[in-house]
Amino acid sequence: MTSLVNEMVSNVVESVLKEILKKTTGKGTTRRRKRQTRSATSGRFVRKTARSKAKGAKPARKQVSRRRSASNRSSQRAH
Q1: Whole-number Å distance between alpha carbons of 79 and 73
Q2: Nearest CA-CA partner of 46 in 32, 62, 31, 57
Q3: Of 17, 44, 55, 65, which is least surrounded by CB within 10 A?
Q4: Per-residue pLDDT reduced to its tens digit, 14-55
């Protein structure tokens, strides 16, 4: 009877460990996506052709505001 309980408990523990290990792997950084160019006339996204790639005109980047930490804000207020 005790061997049966021991076996059940060990099986449950094993499966839980496998599940945890499966979830922790493969968490890398997210890849940044390039912004798509839009057509000046229709406003739709434009497919990249060999000619447009050679030109190299890139669309404007979105501005990313820099976040300030709480300590930086408080030190600015003090001066």
Answers
A1: 10
A2: 57
A3: 65
A4: 988 888 877 666 666 777 777 777 877 887 887 776 665 666
Task: Please give the average per-residue pLDDT across 57-73, as a whole number.
Answer: 78
Confidence of residue 10 (pLDDT cuts 50, 70, 90): very high
Q: In this structure, what token pair is assigned to residue 16?
A: 């839980």
Residue with tokens 């979105």: 62
Q: Which amino acid is at 66?
A: R
pTM of the entire structure? 0.29
Those residues whose C-beta lies under 8 Å from the C-beta of residue 46, and which sit 6 or more positions away, are 36, 37, 38, 39, 52
What is d(CA 59, CA 40) in angstroms, rounded to the nearest whole number?
12
Q: Cβ(38)–Cβ(44) under 8 Å?
A: yes
CB 48 within 8 A of CB 36: no
